[in-house]
Specification:
Elements: E1 5-9, H1 16-25, E2 28-42, E3 45-59
C-alpha cells in the first residue's frame, strides 16, 4: 500500500514545533527532514545566508 507524502517547509516566522503542529492538523506525521542552505554571492564568493528546513510528511491513517 502506497502512502501519500508531502514536503512541508518551515515558514519564515515559524518554529520547527509550529510546522510539526501544522502537519498534524492536516493529518500528516513527520517521517523525514532535510535542510537546504541558501547562498548569496558577495564580492564574488558564495556566502550562506539562511537554511531552509523541510519535513517529509506521511498521511496518517485514522
Amino acid at each position: 500500500m502506497s502512502k501519500k507524502t508531502v514536503w512541508f517547509e518551515v515558514e519564515e516566522n515559524e518554529t520547527l514545533d509550529n510546522c510539526l503542529e501544522r502537519m498534524r492538523e492536516q493529518g500528516y506525521m513527520a517521517m523525514g527532514r532535510k535542510e537546504e542552505p541558501v547562498f548569496e554571492e558577495i564580492d564574488g564568493k558564495p556566502i550562506p545566508v539562511k537554511q531552509i528546513v523541510k519535513f517529509k510528511g506521511v498521511k496518517m491513517d485514522n
